[in-house]
Structures are given as C-alpha cells and as structure tokens.
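Per your request, structure below.
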C-alpha cells in the first residue's frame, strides 16, 4: 500500500476511533440510550470507549500500528454487533467498514514488519 494511502487510512481510523471512544467516555446521552436499547450494561461503555481511544492512538506510530489496528478492529466489531442486535442491519453493514479498514491496516503493518 502506498505511503500516502497508509497515512490517510491511519488518519481516518484514528479520528473515527478516538471520536467514538470519546463519546462513550463522555457518556453522551445517545451512547447511553444505545447501550440501554441493546440491553448491554452501560458499565461496559467506559471500558469500550477507553479501548477505542487507546486503539486510535496506537495506530498512529508505526511501531504500535499492528496492536492498535487489532484493537480498533475489535472494538468496532463489538459496536457493529450491538448495532445488528438493535436491528439496524443497514447501518450494521456500513459500520463494518472500519473493521475491514482496520484489518487492512493490520495486514499492511504485518507485511511491513
């Protein structure tokens, strides 16, 4: 993957992950409502948010990109599973895009190592 493409992917995933995690950490009302709607304890919201922020930060340096991309993919997959559980299949499919992109980044970081 071209260097510019990798940095664009890193930037996009870092922003998405940090924003999604920050909303959970801040206990935004829509996040609380979403967790309640899918019958997932809101006590899990803070750890998931922290993991999303950490993953978003870890994908920035090349040395930790493999770990960060795995963490980003895992946390977005968990969020996608909850979206599917809420019955929102069209958004659930769309929400798998960051999982696929993080997996691609993980693969490219693994190949470069």
């Amino acid at each position: 993957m071209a260097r510019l493409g990798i940095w664009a992917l890193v930037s996009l995933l870092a922003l998405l992950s940090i924003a999604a995690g920050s909303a959970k950490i801040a206990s935004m009302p829509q996040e609380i409502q979403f967790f309640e709607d899918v019958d997932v304890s809101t006590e899990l919201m803070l750890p998931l948010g922290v993991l999303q922020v950490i993953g978003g930060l870890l994908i920035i340096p090349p040395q930790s990109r493999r770990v960060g991309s795995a963490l980003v993919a895992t946390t977005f997959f968990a969020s996608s599973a909850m979206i599917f559980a809420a019955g929102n299949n069209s958004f659930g499919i769309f929400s798998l895009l960051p999982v696929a992109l993080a997996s691609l980044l993980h693969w490219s970081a693994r190949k470069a190592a």
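The mean pLDDT is 93.

Regards,
D.
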